[in-house]
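thread from #wetlab-drylab

HS: before we spend reagent money on co-crystallization trials with adenosine-5'-triphosphate, can we at least see a predicted complex? here's what I'd submit
DV: go for it
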Amino acid sequence: MQGLEISNLTKRFGEALAVSDVSLKIEQGSFVCFLGPSGCGKTTLMRIVAGLEQATEGKVLFDGRDMTRVPTHERNFGMVFQALALFPHLNVADNVGYSFRFRAMDKKQRDERVAELLKLVDLPDMQTRRVDQLSGGQRQRVAIARALAQEPLLFLMDEPLSALDAKLRDHMQVELRQLQRKLKITTIFVTHDQREAMTIADKIVVMAHGKVQQVGSPVDIYRRPVNRFVADFIGQSNLLEVQLLSRTQVQLSDLTVEVETVPAGLKIGQTATLCVRPESTVLTPASRGTPGLLGKVTFVRDLGSTVEIFLNVAGREVLASLPPATWAPMAQESEFRISVAPDSATVLED
Ligand code: ATP
């Protein structure tokens, strides 16, 4: 296979199981995020791919070649980490062109290549600037240009933007994504920030407790989370108890809800959890007598572009999110029947 293949990878640190039997395929040219909370094993997994850590069991293949025992410096993978290791005593050009020292290149070729790379990361004419005279975002771009200078086969980034303020971070996410599309370098990006992963990834690998929970496109993972962990970790969700009526229908209180499919491991007749995103809820004033969960409004938050309505349903909170124009004519009501928009809810495996 072209690209990266991780097969049955396990890493133990003494008694602690950091990565547990992970298998993954990352296609050539794709941008993949390892996403999960602190301690879920995402950094360890990336460090094994980089060769900075040895796996206890399992293999890493790149373009079909077994890399498991290949030393880091022979893998030709570019790396950018949160704690930047720029050389403070060198200027921008010398940082970017550092790896050229070890290649047969004359000064003119080196200068041209550095200028090209700086243009690519949108830092033209910064060659002679000292790195301690740059902003956080500019330094990050120097680090990216330096990693790109090696023409890496694979680009590995561990929380590279987390030291930046929110606005710059948003901006750099878009820039990174555009740059990756242009260069088509297979990229792995580690983050604990679901919004960041949703913005930049082709594919997200959601991890918890050293295990892969779900792999899919951002939209897939948001719309069709497989379990409670993913539903909770990615975006907001209402987790409601339902009874399974058939492979495509569930009973929610007095309401029948159509679903795409019920996971194969669940049996008809049993109870299960339905994940309903706040924007997939439908509210009808209770006085109209339509079916649905009966909810009492406890709090309304108008965010300008959407309105969030918190409802108490038999002691549990349900969150609805509506466009302001939909909410306005109902704003005086205090009791609603809550139902679900067609084909928008997912039955979870566990
Ligand atoms: P964070 O976002 O906080 O960096 P992470 O998801 O990247 O977390 P890892 O750093 O991969 O998680 O750690 C996974 C588990 O392995 C954690 O429980 C951690 O304490 C443990 N661990 C990581 N490195 C070591 C080590 N060198 N020695 C012992 N345990 C370790």
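DV: The first strand starts at residue 3 and ends at 13.
HS: ok that's useful, forwarding to the group
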